[in-house]
Design a protein that fits this description.
Structural class: mainly alpha
Largest sheet: none
Distance between the termini: 22 Å
Helix content: over 70%
Shape: elongated
Number of domains: 1
Number of strands: 0
Strand content: under 5%
Length: 154
């Protein structure tokens, strides 16, 4: 997990895998959204829930790996990027990510209440809320790839 990665950068293996996953995340979420647009709601539900669960697992692997690897400061020691700029960018990335993931969890919970248990949904406009989550998670994914680039390839 901590051996050299496969993307030809200074990143460890786990970071390469995580970066690939987050690079694909907007497409995974987008394909699930297309299922909803095609009125394939059961498939949409399964794809979104599966993507959400895999995303949480990937985030846990990321967090454990970063802590074991020495954290942001350790990665910055090997980078040519500006420390202050990266710290600010990372802070924004974390805020957007946390808000997006929490909103995603709320939306999934609301959808499960509505569709599986036939209870009143918490979210009134599922599609509108979902669009905001898609934008937030896509921004999070892109920002993560940018951080990877500046920490390991720049």
């Amino acid at each position: 997990m901590f051996e050299a990665g496969f993307l030809g950068t200074k990143a460890p293996f786990y970071m390469d895998l995580i970066t690939i996953y987050f690079g694909l995340l907007p497409f995974l979420m987008g394909s699930a959204i297309v299922m909803a647009m095609k009125k394939k709601f059961d498939l949409h539900y399964k794809m979104q829930l599966g993507t959400f669960i895999v995303t949480l697992i990937v985030v846990v692997i990321f967090e454990v790996g970063v802590r074991i690897s020495g954290g942001f400061n350790e990665f910055m020691n090997e980078s040519n990027a500006n420390y202050s700029a990266m710290a600010i960018f990372l802070g924004i990335h974390v805020v957007v990510a946390v808000i997006s993931v929490v909103m995603w969890a709320i939306l999934i919970y609301s959808a499960i209440r509505e569709y599986k248990f036939h209870k009143k949904p918490i979210i009134r406009s599922h599609a509108k809320f979902g669009r905001w989550i898609y934008v937030g998670m896509s921004a999070t994914a892109v920002m993560g790839v940018v951080i990877y680039y500046f920490l390991f390839a720049f």
